[in-house]
Amino acid sequence: MSIIAEVLNTANEAEMLSLPKKMSEISQAVSHLRTGVKELMEVKYLRLLQGNDNTNLVEKGNEVAENIKDLQTRLFQQTHTEASTVAEELRSMTESLIEARIMCDICKKLVAIDDEFRKALHDQEHQRYFSAAQHISNIEEMLSRDDTELEFLTIFEALRNQSSGNYNRFSSEALKIWKTEVSWINCQLDSGRKTFSLQVSKPKDLLENLIKTLNLYGVCEPQIYYFSTSLNTDVLIPCIEGCVTITIKHNTVNSVLSIVSVVDDTPPVSSVLENLTKVFEFLHELLDIDIDESRNFISELGLHLADKFVSQLVRESLSEAIPSRWQDLRNYEDLVRRISEFNALLRRIKFLPDGCDQLEKFCGNVEEQFLNKMIERYLSRAREISFMNLQDMTPYYTEPEEPGSYQTFDSGKSKKDTIVLFTELPNDFGKFPSCHISKSVRDLMALVKEILNDCVSGIYPMPNTALKLFCTARDCINLYVEITPVIHIKLLESLPQQSALFHNNCFYIAHELLR
């Protein structure tokens, strides 16, 4: 045998002799660690007494874990180098070491949970609510792992109860503080006036800490929904539907947005945009806070409100501002620029989701909006005419023609002999006979004449204007003919006079169209 082989053999023998001793030391250390951890946990979480500091146990647990890791490495090396005579002994030591490692991990886990409890309580007392929530979340995650030894079952159950209690208490405290820092105040001044106030505390860091905490506890979404509902009902809708006064006051502690309803009259669009701009600038200044890495408080409000809010704004305010006369369109273009600026504000503060583009579309083609609005108004007038009372009649007179020469025919002659060749139409050909017609049908034909005059006037430069207006005139007539019998069906079925009157109306429409 060479000198090198002898040296290696001697080293292996020395290593084998030291392993049992090291294993015994680790077993004793794990036993002491288990006893210390168990006593600490029973005192603090079963007896609910003030326990000692766990710093010593943390250090001891880390030291034992390192020793176990080192011994595992040495056993692994020996298992691959020793002869089969000692393989059984090595396997036995390996199994014992695995058991020791499992017990050490459980002890370290218990100490870590105790440490997280201590940090959570400390952070909660010092108003670091989000940090405290993170510690509680860490505890919940560690307790969810299924690696509990039988002798620690009671301790783990006590830890779960303690964690649940802290979770409920901390989340309730955070929610109570949030409602104090961000609060709605409703006041009825008199029978016709109301005031709503949104009070927001100044420290934005505290608000962000609170909303992140509520998100971690799983109670953020209900608060966002409540806030968005109050914002829409008490602020945004009143700004759109009525004349309101908005005031903003800042002091060292908080800021207050107040909205007072003045009258219920429809406000001008310029006032609506001005008031809404104040509201959203206030929200951006004080509540531009992050919920987590990917979500913002204002953007979450937008997910709840944007589509509904913008639709109502366009329908009840902006659309009503579209002028009815071509001469007023230039002033309306200035208003469209203000609408675009308001839309840019909503985009900048991330209130509008990516798919909410109603304001962009509304501002996209002013001339087309004007034409569509004009057509909409014509059809609306036609619909109102269709609902008018058929019994409201007016006589229609036809001036009689001067008597002329009339050719008489002999009934005894053959049909061929009585054929008359007309070289010109009689003067009274195509005249509508004198009768009674409804006032509504005269209003309808006056409307159709107005539309056709616009159609041929050439004052509107938009493409296909004449075609669209001609189709609108046709639609107004179709609307009257189709829905009037439905609206007045009872009268038409029960009173022959009404049926005759509607018959006159329809023939009057046909006569006017031919004329």
Question: What does the model show?
Answer:
- This protein has 515 residues and is of the alpha+beta class.
- It has a 4-stranded antiparallel sheet. It has a two-stranded antiparallel sheet with strand order 5-6.
- Residues 1-17, 48-52, 80-85 and 405-409 have low confidence and may be disordered.
- Helix 8 (269-287) packs parallel to helix 10.
- A hairpin with a 2-residue loop joins strand 1 and strand 2 (193-201).
- The chain has helices spanning 3-46, 55-81, 87-125, 129-143, 153-181, 204-217, 220-241, 269-287, 297-318, 329-348, 358-364, 366-386, 439-457, 465-487, 489-494, 496-514; strands at residues 182-190, 193-201, 243-250, 254-263, 393-396, 435-438.
- It has 3 domains: 3-126, Up-down Bundle (Methane Monooxygenase Hydroxylase, Chain G, domain 1); 178-364, no CATH class; 365-392 and 432-515.
- The longest helix is centred in the first third of the chain and has 44 residues, at 3-46.
